[in-house]
Amino acid sequence: MKIEIATLFPEMCESVLAESIIGRARKKGAVDIACRNIRDYTKDKHRRVDDTPYGGGMGMVMQADPIFNCYEAVCQEMGGKPHTIYMSPKGNVFTQKRAIELAALENILIICGHYEGVDQRVLDEIVDEEISIGDYVLTGGELPALVVADAVSRMCEGVLSDELCYQDESHFNGLLEYPQYTRPEEWHGVKVPEVLLSGHHKNIDDYRLKMSIEITKNRRPDMYENYIKSHEITDKT
């Protein structure tokens, strides 16, 4: 998989992408993530990429040309149009389901807006979807783009040691994850549940599923209802 992030702050993105699991995956070639500076694609001698909004208003708006020029360069290098995402509070809220779908794609371009946004004309021409990571507003699209890149990349082959690393956790199967424990067996007077020490794999699996359902019901009743319906389970509580 190839992910390109078009941004005004590539160093900010690189500082995150170079670390931890994603950083190691990039070094060994399990996933290809690159950051492009949109300023490199402006024709303005001062590398300006924004201007005042038509109709008045506060702040500045990113111009269409530098973003489009960056997009064309990515298309040329990829040999075709990548699935193009614009990170925006107006977009559809990002979910694990969408992350799974995006992980199946070959090429993705994520555009990071800044200031008061981006000229709508370039969005209308090149963007396939707008994605939001929540109902709040940040100063730019870089942090949301990193969230999407991380969530998508970790499901690519070779990034994690095993598919179970992401399949057996919150949201992947429609439930929140069960509680986790490690050594020591007793901490501050609280012991690890006996079933986890039993070595009986079916009992452990049953316990974890029960806890996942219970936690989901208490914390995310919307997810719980969807899970019950999708599995045709009768709630007897």
Protein architecture, described:
- The protein is of the alpha/beta class and 237 residues long.
- It has two domains: 2-153, SPOUT methyltransferase, trefoil knot domain (Alpha/beta knot), CATH 3.40.1280.10; 168-230, Trp Operon Repressor, Chain A, CATH 1.10.1270.20.
- Helix content is 39%, strand content 17%.
- The chain has helices at residues 10-17, 20-28, 64-78, 96-103, 120-126, 142-153, 164-167, 201-219, 221-230; strands at 2-7, 32-37, 50-51, 61-62, 83-93, 107-112, 129-132, 186-187, 190-191.
Task: Supply the key terms.
single chain; 237 residues; alpha/beta; Alpha/beta knot; Trp Operon Repressor, Chain A; 2 domains; 5-stranded parallel beta sheet; two-stranded antiparallel sheet; 9 helices; 39% helix; 17% strand
Number of strands: 9
CATH class of the largest domain: Alpha Beta
Any guess at the CATH architecture of the largest domain? 3-Layer(aba) Sandwich
Low-confidence stretches: none
Number of continuous helical runs = 9
Beta percentage is: 15-25%
